[in-house]
Amino acid sequence: MTATRDPDRLIQAYLEEGPAVMTDRVLDAIRDDIEATDQRAGFGFGPWRNLPMLRPILMTAAVVAAIAAGLVAYSTLSPNISTQPTPQPTPLPTVADFPVDGSLEAGTTYTVSRFSEPMTFTVPALLTETDILGDSGDAHTFRVDLWEYGIATFHDDVLVVDDICNPTTTIPLPASPDEVEAWLNRSTGALMTSQTATVVDGRVARIFNVRLTPDCVRDSDSPVSGAAFWFQAGERHRIYAIPTADDTILGVTWGTDFQGRGEQSLDIANAAFNLLVRSMAFDQ
Asked: Residue 248: which of 189, 192, 204 has the closest Cα?
């Protein structure tokens, strides 16, 4: 077994044992020092008092010097070891171009460069068990299809119907979330069941849930020409009014077949689309 080289243990052993014997040469030097000191000492402090006190003082000084030297050597030789964990870099999300009529991967960020408002969004990993499709038909509309759960369409700089219940003409897409709310409220046959707000790329977006009553139009064909979309009686939709630097993008969720059927799955789809909308980021 090799002797310990732990500085703390070596110092502790030195303090416990100490030097057992002082050499004659050291004692003679001490006596000489005492005799020289006695010539300068005041009354009452003869050499017979200094000798017993001097030995422990010298021994203590030697111990202190040894400890100091040991600490200096230890600090010099010991490696500088940090107990802090090394920070690991945060993995960057996968970025891809939004495909036309292609499948999307959950957790992937897509760049929608063809859209009239260039942007990115991340497909939520909430529904990884279903097929997710993307369709960018033109520069003003793109679609994300969760297949069996529902669909979301996003529109910018398009024409919409003037009344979502019983349209008579087309109007430009409202330019702000407040104008979107006023547009929906003008449709007297549609019920706004709730509304909330969320933050998208540092701006406050509005979310409206609407249901079309039996009094609304039932035609499967567009009742007016030129509208980007229209609704029918019995449908319910979630509508996102998403502000950008200069206008508003409109997002709409649908049942699985656009024909007023499949709305029973919209609660599941809407939870995923909420995450998708909040992930949006715009060039400006």
From this structure: 204
